[in-house]
Amino acid sequence: MEERLHQAEEALAHLARTVEDLSEVVTRQAREIDLLTRRVALLLEREAEREADAGGTVPLADQRPPHW
What is the predicted pLDDT for the residue at 61? Predict the structure, then answer.
């Protein structure tokens, strides 16, 4: 009985460590996604400004694809 309790405690410790590791990964990925989202928004804004400065045409992002 004591051996089974020890095995259960050991398995629980491994599971707790795995949860901590996964939590760290998720936190890191969330920060990276936030950073990439901000960068994409900045790039879209810069491209829209560049297109607007290039002439009075409709920005590519606002144009309908040719198959519509």
Answer: 64
